């Protein structure tokens, strides 16, 4: 065997090892990123049912109290109860967007009510999605008030994938 043939074989093996390494690193990175973006199962359970125990390092009177509350399911909307006008973007930020939409509103009589629909993006980190869940909880317990943006409903069926919406 000539030296050129040996170097060609060595270079081919190194190239294959490099490609395999890149594929493995890419797959691991995607798995870790997906975990970072998903709301964890215990956070979802805590949202719907409330927390049994609050960590000792939680601030009393703020997040700790919110975590104790169970989600007020009276505000839950079915997917057929709302329409989002995706071409009517009202605003957006780092973790979500607000669109014009309509909900079927039996509470306010028959017909539809025009609302602002706050959404999180699937690419938002889980901390942003969990923050929106806290916001939904707080607004659902505050009730109606002239000086606060009122909540008319929420769609939370897609929480794990970042598809919660507030109306």
Automatic annotation (TrEMBL):
Any single GO CC term annotated in Swiss-Prot or TrEMBL for this entry:
plasma membrane
Transmembrane regions: 6-33
Q: Where is the Protein kinase domain?
A: 84-167
Q: Which InterPro entries match?
A: Kinase-like_dom_sf, Prot_kinase_dom, Protein_kinase_ATP_BS, RTK, Ser-Thr/Tyr_kinase_cat_dom
Q: Does the keyword Cytoplasm apply?
A: no
Q: What Gene3D superfamilies does this protein's entry cite?
A: Phosphorylase Kinase, domain 1 (3.30.200.20)
Look up and give the membrane topology term: Single-pass membrane protein
UniProt-annotated binding residues for ATP: 118
Full protein name: Platelet-derived growth factor receptor beta
């Amino acid at each position: 065997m000539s030296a050129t043939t040996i170097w060609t074989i060595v270079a081919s093996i190194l190239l294959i090892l490099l490609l395999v390494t890149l594929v493995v690193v890419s797959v691991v990175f995607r798995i870790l990123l997906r975990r970072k973006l998903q709301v964890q199962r215990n956070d979802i359970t805590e949202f719907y049912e409330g927390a049994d125990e609050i960590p000792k390092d939680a601030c009393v009177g703020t997040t700790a109290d919110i975590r104790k509350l169970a989600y007020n399911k009276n505000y839950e909307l079915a997917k057929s109860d709302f329409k989002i006008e995706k071409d009517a973007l009202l605003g957006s930020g780092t973790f979500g967007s607000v669109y014009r939409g309509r909900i079927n509103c039996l509470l306010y009589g028959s017909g539809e009510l025009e609302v602002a629909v706050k959404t999180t993006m699937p690419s938002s980190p889980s901390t942003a999605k969990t923050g929106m869940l806290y916001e939904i909880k707080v607004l659902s317990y505050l009730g109606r008030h002239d000086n606060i943006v009122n909540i008319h409903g929420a769609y939370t069926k897609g929480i794990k994938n970042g598809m919660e919406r507030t109306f």
